[in-house]
Amino acid sequence: MLVTMIQVVSKGISIVSKWNVRRPALRAFAAVTLLAGTALVSFSGGIAPAVGQETNPRRVAKPLDARSRTIVQSVDMQVKRAGAAYAGGDYETSGEALRKAIKQIEVAGNAESSELHDALLPMMRRIVNARAMLELEGVTLPPFRIPQRPKATTEPMAESSSDPSDQPSTDGVSFVSEVAPILVDKCGSCHIRGSKGGFAMPTFAKLMEGPPEGVVVFPGDVIASRLIETIETGDMPRGGGKVSKEQLDTLKQWVTQGAKFDGPDPTAMLTSLKSGEATPDTPATPEPDQPTMVGKPTGNETVSFSKDVAPLLVENCTGCHLDAMQTRGGLRMDTLAQMLRGGDSGSVMKPGDGEASLLVQKLRGSAGDRMPAGGRPPLSDNDIQLISTWISEGAKVDEALVQTPMKVVTAQAWLSAAASSEVSQRRAEIAEDEFRLAGADVNRLQNHQSDHFAVWGEVSPATLETVAESAEAALQQARKFLPKADGSPEDFFHGKASIYVLPKRYDYSEFAKMVEGRSVPAEWLSHWKYDGIRAYVAVVASERASEEEIAERVVAPVASLAVVSRGEGVPRWFAQGLGTAISGGESKRDRNANMRRQAELVTAVGSLKSGKDFLNGKLPPERADRMAVAIAESLLSRQNRRGFDAVLRNLQSGQPFPQAFQAGMNMTPIAYVDAWLQWVK
């Protein structure tokens, strides 16, 4: 049935391609038809129907091996990208995606596999028709014919796991001998021996996990892999390093082939893989002791980790053990979990006995060199005693803080005790620091204050005022959906939120690179960030932008900032999705943009196995954001609105997000997203 539907859709595209598809109505029909062909595959469980059956029902299908499945997934992804770009009127991008799909099919032809040919056949038919449509739009593409089906193989192909970390790869690019050396050489100082920009990839497992904002390697998909994108655009590596064309090609081939790991232990340090200390034939050296378990606070403790201990560690250990380019003694302390794991000398803490703990002994100078090193003054006896007492009392801490960056823990503790006016002042200081870091002349920096916002930028006062007015209007719109906040206007964000106004798209991009350590998608003109102390919207705006354009760029991120600041631990997907949904950001887009967004949603849903993948950042940012909006719209529906309102009230009352969501919706966030996925599919 599915194959028949695809054939009907393909025939419809072929007919349309013979007409004048430059007429808007027919072009729209052609785009929708092309996307429909893709959607049929996606909503039927990814590419499984094509992989699991042949087009001739009399043939008995054989399972594909891992390499063949990767090729099918990659071609399927490129065809979907071509459809999405065509729907948005971006014919050059659509053509480029088809070129890549055609090239991948040529590679697949070398395999002489009848099973692989059958799996690719529906996509090859769509390529034929899409190629005709694009040539009518003036896009030149290489010739393409569906190749003849190879003779059926006599032996079934070996079945293997599709998970890159399940088993070693036996062919293709080797991660251990080819990829790891490139990463260590070009990324080592910032992301392997350090965590520049909050991203550390000391092991294969951490590389595939990605930074907090999302995964950077998508097996089989070079375009979606942010690791490749940042290298190709020149964003990375920084500091004068350069990845050669040959090295980049190696990385691309590795991703295309499924980003496989061919070593014995995905948690082994990449530096040991490079140096040969842990090879496929030699068991990797185990990691230091597993994290020491800590208990939950009872309320009877005299020392608080977040208020007393973490600030001392951040102040005195940064540079050597926190945010360190090269970690000293193998001890990382960016999070409590890392500190509990210990370093080269083993565990540094013995909960229940502070004075016997190596951390305290190092601070006192009774076990080797006294810490902190590097000429820094030693901690006072009172400060050391605070740390010792905390350990002696069991080193107890709320579970949510174990994996939270220690700098964030410190910031949140300060935030909870500070007055709104103090927070506003601190955010003003941060604004100047971050503009300076982005290369701005702070002497020319202008500032405009409104009830809830402090607006900064090297633009005219009139532009800052327009941005402030748009932000206040956006906040008023968002507050219709949010519980009322008591106190003065300045208390809404616990201090005024900042808005950074960048006059040009280039300035905005540089700001993201220098301040946030990341590249933002090409179509972005604004975004938000919140970690408690930092609460800002960055937006492109100048005297040339109209009030309507400024308002359109500001409305969704301001709404998201309002949502994320309502409670503890609100995840980005929830704030981003609701911010866009309650601001009407999706409905304001033109028809082509909405078609493109719909295509992104189709692709995102079709690529997910479960809600856990979405919540754990297994999607590129653009797809994750589109899916977050769709989930948020379902929360705002009539049947779910009562539960959604309860979630927000629970957050406002101080409940952490997981508990607030479960109490309001009567299910966990993962269960809700899983149910939503099943409904959509």
TrEMBL record:
Domain Cytochrome c: 167-259
Keyword terms of this UniProt record: Heme, Iron, Metal-binding
InterPro entries (UniProt xref): Cyt_c-like_dom, Cyt_c-like_dom_sf, Cyt_c_Planctomycete-type
Keyword Lyase found: no
Comp. bias intervals (Low complexity): 160-169
Disordered as annotated region, ranges: 145-173, 258-302
Descriptive protein name: Putative secreted protein
